[in-house]
Amino acid sequence: MTGKVIIVTGASSGLGFEISKYLAEGGNDVVLACRDKEKAEDAVTKIKTQYPSALVQSMELDLCSSSSIRNFSKEFMRSKRKLNVLINNAGAFVKGKNHSPELTSEGLECNMSSNYFGHFLLTHLLLDYLSQTATIDEESRIINITCRSHNKIGRWYQKDLESLDPNNMQLLKMDTYTDKQAYKNSKLCSVLFTYKLADEVKAENVTPGKYYKNGRPSRSSLESYDLELQRSLWKNSCKVTGIRGSMAAGAAFDNLSLKD
Ligand SMILES: NC(=O)c1ccc[n+]([C@@H]2O[C@H](COP(=O)([O-])OP(=O)(O)OC[C@H]3O[C@@H](n4cnc5c(N)ncnc54)[C@H](OP(=O)(O)O)[C@@H]3O)[C@@H](O)[C@H]2O)c1
């Protein structure tokens, strides 16, 4: 991939940083969307030191703040001519205190907010823009980075977790919260969202949502194919983020291989 405009969320470290560096090296115009300005600038400097002609810039984005997400989207659309790829990579495993969920200033559970709701809102705000680019460059892509642990039956937990409860997705009901369940829910929501999004844009002639594991199309958890759950989540997410339901397509990745 070369010559594309690409946003990578959570690009200040880890996978997001490596993805950004790889894409910049390949001749793409990469926007590192990060919540910490200093870390973001450090990341840009590191990439530019290694690849002086790299087209990289940082922009502020806190996925736990709807105003930050809205400002980011507005600013991005003002400054760039197109958007080929949105990589929803940022993620956090937030441990609540005393078995209670940690909440954002907007009252959302932190794992769900940073890993899922924030990306849901961001994706919707940039959707038209992605779609317009697709009419010029033939395609655009949305990539959601998820995790193997979106499956309730996972080695990571040492024991099985609960299915996603459509009436208690953020585990805010008394005595239902555990940090691992919250993280699992947030990552499952990314996969459910990926499939539902693809379904919503069928008519738009966009590549349908796929799940990749170790760089290959694969099967996600049984729960993620539950159409009723996908619908409930969509409805709930629109309500939480104040979006009126829209469309786009995407892919969910766990263990993204940079060579793929
Ligand atoms: N590492 C693994 O073994 C593994 C396995 C499966 C899936 N994943 C997934 O892969 C993705 C990247 O993980 P990683 O290991 O590279 O993690 P990481 O090194 O901890 O990086 C996470 C990035 O997300 C950013 N971030 C967190 N909350 C944010 C928010 N509210 N707004 C904006 N940015 C935020 C962090 O910013 P700050 O620097 O400001 O904290 C950081 O840049 C995540 O989605 C993770 O769930 C990781």
Could you explain how this protein is built, in words?
With 260 residues, the chain is an alpha/beta fold. The chain has one domain: NAD(P)-binding Rossmann-like Domain (Rossmann fold, 3-Layer(aba) Sandwich), CATH 3.40.50. Helices cover 40% and strands 14% of the residues. The protein is built from 6 helices and 8 strands; from the N terminus they run βαβαβαβαβαββαβ. An 8-stranded mixed β-sheet has the order 3-2-1-4-5-8-6-7, with helices on both faces. It is globular. It binds NADP nicotinamide-adenine-dinucleotide phosphate. NADP nicotinamide-adenine-dinucleotide phosphate binds next to helix 1.
Number of strands: 8
Question: In one word, what is the shape?
Answer: globular
How do the SSEs run, as a string of H and E? EHEHEHEHEHEEHE
**Number of structurally distinct domains:** 1
Query: What is the first-to-last residue Cα distance?
Result: 11 Å
Rg over CA atoms, rounded to whole Å, is 17 Å
Bound molecules: NADP nicotinamide-adenine-dinucleotide phosphate
The helicity comes to 40-55%
CATH superfamily: NAD(P)-binding Rossmann-like Domain
User: Which regions have little confidence, pLDDT < 50, spanning 5+ residues?
Assistant: 246-250, 255-260
Average of the residue pLDDT scores: 90
| Proportion of beta-strand residues | 5-15%
GO molecular function, one term: oxidoreductase activity
InterPro entries: NAD(P)-bd_dom_sf, SDR_fam
Family: Belongs to the short-chain dehydrogenases/reductases (SDR) family.
Keywords: Oxidoreductase
